[in-house]
Write a structure and sequence with these properties.
The structure is a homodimer of 399-residue chains. By secondary structure, chain A is an alpha/beta fold. Chain A has three domains: 194 residues, NAD(P)-binding Rossmann-like Domain (Rossmann fold), CATH 3.40.50.720; 86 residues, N-(1-d-carboxylethyl)-l-norvaline Dehydrogenase, domain 2, CATH 1.10.1040; 102 residues, NAD(P)-binding Rossmann-like Domain (Rossmann fold, 3-Layer(aba) Sandwich). Chain A contains 14 helices and 15 strands. An eight-stranded mixed sheet of chain A has the order 3-2-1-4-7-8-9-10, sandwiched between helices. Chain A has a five-stranded mixed sheet with strand order 12-11-13-14-15, with helices on one face. A two-stranded antiparallel ribbon of chain A has the order 5-6. In chain A, helix 7 links the parallel strand 9 and strand 10. Chain A is globular, with a radius of gyration of 23 Å. Chains A and B meet through helix 8, helix 9, helix 10 and helix 11 of A and helix 8, helix 9, helix 10 and helix 11 of B.
């Protein structure tokens, strides 16, 4: 256990927390990483990287794991630290409201070792205002400290699985305190391992910045999806049009089966829910419409797949359809709000003879998602959701 | 009159046509410009620039006007040309459907001098498909030629008043033929005066490209407006958040009183109307919502202005309000779909004591728009729609 008070504690060694911990350790900072997953901690301390798809992480874990980066499942091991960075997941429930269960547990556990004068920085993406209200209240309740006894700031993670190390090293990182002194102290700590750091006027502004970025992405993917559908209807090659439409002032995104994962499809709801709670329904119409357009893309693709089946000389119910990709995006073994999984299930519910396969998944993993497995070459029709490509067995593929 | 058959004719010497004609002339091409406005033609031939706000145009008109750029109100003067570029305005009617009256008249007049083997290129922004359907039909009817007797292509203007010359010289320009030979021939002609030229697979794709760019702008301005309203509601400085949210993958636009002018608020309707005609209402929901969000911004600003009036110790109906800017955007003396003009009228309809002023306009011009004039410093409350700034007389301004 590291006893030096200049060590920083990072609560949560998941896809976002571990790259941060590794980059901090690599910058010469002593890091105590707290994660309830004991096995994960053991492996990190052995120098074994638990996120193989994260470029550059392996070397850092090998170098620093168990040395300047010490992982532990016990909050008490971090009690001598004076800076705590919290980066644990926040989910949404079925009605798209944030579910703070995991976050509250982590923050209250942290509160029990929090001392007067300590600094706490949150990194998880939040509905704006969360750090200075919910988080502060939980910390006070569990620590017995007064609100002004500790420093509190917010700095949103901007990682993207696969590119997190380079993002931490090069990308602008935003930071805001709940008061001036908190922002200043957090800036000093983060300066030790983040080079492109931007202090903004408040934690709430920093929270909003991250949510706004997600909204930009979601709305622009919805726009790409809408323009794609219009181009298809009008007989225009969307991809050719997009390539020539884009320039320094125009950034039309790529169409898709929708938007999955823990981030982009979730963040707009933070603002939508807040506006609806305030009965300001008209202030979030575009965000809501974009969510609907993106989530409904599976209906569009389902229809397209069914129409493609007409090219085959078989009764529709006997056409073996393979959805070749069920993770939420290519190259990431995650399923949260996966529209590809939702598409396979939708076609199944319609009574079609649907199977699935995935370049990243074994037959058993496909089956564990409640789908039947097929080798793509045995299907009559293959839909590749990452390429948006429909292929008829032995025939041409169309995009 | 230029008799050489290698001269090109440009039909329409307006804000888009004249810079194109000037750049072509400056590249050594002989140009005959046809414009029904006889006085404008006389001035151009005298070397006088009729669009003073267009940077760099004055020198070109002075150099080439009346020499290699000859302006004429008569189509017959261009009858020896073999290339015709049409760049006249297209408006929308009150139900946002395109109004082809001016375009049809110009195209039919051109048809009367069209010869076998000639090339016609359209530059006006169109609903995709227009060049190969309506335009071709009008040309055939008025010329008596068969559809395959002439070459037909499309290359959208991408000018922006004030920056048209640099755009023509540096910005990528897209071109598509209604068939391969038409595209090829148009490419050869345009190569003489456009350096960054991109041939795409069809006129229809080229038409869609321009409309898609407008849709990107409209949707992203709607997003900026929606995020601005949410930030205001939640007590976050939108401008600070935007500045820090934007990076190479995030391009949040600026909020405004809405979107005016002949271009951005019009182009989305080309696609919306086409989808509605096909009863494909769900394919244009985002475009439609964006139009509504942008057009309704004047309601938001009207409410904000009224709430600001409460700071004054006067009955609401006696507060002199000045809308300091009624053109559709700053620095351009145009009113088409101006949301600032619409805002002044809306407040007036509500019975408020509203006046207007504009940095570009005389008192008489303000009055000609049906508004009362006031010198801003005589008003109790000033709203600057270009800065989104509300100023109470003798007080602070808020943004």
């Amino acid at each position: 256990m590291i006893k030096s008070p200049d060590a920083i504690a990072i609560i949560g060694l998941g896809n976002a927390g571990l790259p941060l911990a590794a980059v901090a350790a690599d910058s010469g900072v002593k890091v105590i990483g707290v994660d309830l997953n004991e096995e994960r901690c053991v492996r990190i301390n052995q120098g074994i990287n638990p996120i193989p798809e994260e470029k550059g992480l392996e070397e850092l874990i090998m170098l620093h794991g168990g040395k300047s980066l010490l992982a532990t499942p016990r909050f008490e091991d971090a009690k001598n630290c004076s800076t705590f960075i919290v980066i644990v997941p926040l989910f949404v429930d079925e009605s798209y409201s944030p579910d703070f269960t995991v976050m509250e547990r982590a923050v209250r556990s942290l509160g029990r070792i929090l001392k007067k004068g300590d600094l706490v920085v949150l990194e998880t993406t939040f509905p704006p205002g969360t750090t200075d209200t919910k988080i502060r209240a939980w910390l006070c309740e569990s620590s017995g400290l007064e609100p002004s006894d500790f420093f509190l700031a917010y700095s949103p993670e901007r990682i993207m699985t696969g590119y997190s190390i380079s993002r931490l090293r090069e990308f602008p990182k935003v930071l805001g305190g709940t008061d001036e002194e908190s922002g200043f102290r957090a800036f000093q700590v983060y300066s030790k391992f983040i080079s492109n750091l931007h202090l903004v006027s408040s934690a709430k502004v920093a929270e909003m910045i991250k949510v706004m970025e997600g909204c930009y992405r979601d709305v622009n993917i919805a726009l790409a999806n809408e323009l794609y559908k219009i181009c298809e209807e009008m007989g225009v090659d969307f991809f050719e049009a997009r390539e020539n439409a884009n320039h320094q002032f125009c950034h039309i995104h790529l169409p898709s089966t929708g938007v999955g994962g823990h981030c982009i499809p979730v963040y707009p709801w933070f603002l939508i829910k807040e506006m609806e709670r305030r009965e300001e329904f008209s202030r979030c119409r575009l965000l809501r419409t974009s969510r609907e357009v993106n989530d409904e893309m599976i209906l569009y693709w389902a229809e397209k797949i069914i129409l493609e089946c007409m090219k085959l000389d078989k009764p529709l119910s006997m056409v073996k359809i393979c959805i070749k990709g069920i993770t939420f995006r290519e190259g990431v073994k995650e399923f949260y709000h996966s529209r590809n999984l939702a598409l396979a299930r939708l076609l199944s519910e319609k009574g079609l003879d649907v199977y699935a396969a995935d370049p990243l998944l074994s037959e058993d993993m496909v089956k564990s998602k409640g789908l039947r497995y097929i080798r793509p070459e045995e299907a009559d029709l293959i839909f590749d959701p990452f390429e948006l490509r429909l292929t008829v067995a032995g025939g041409d593929s169309t995009r």
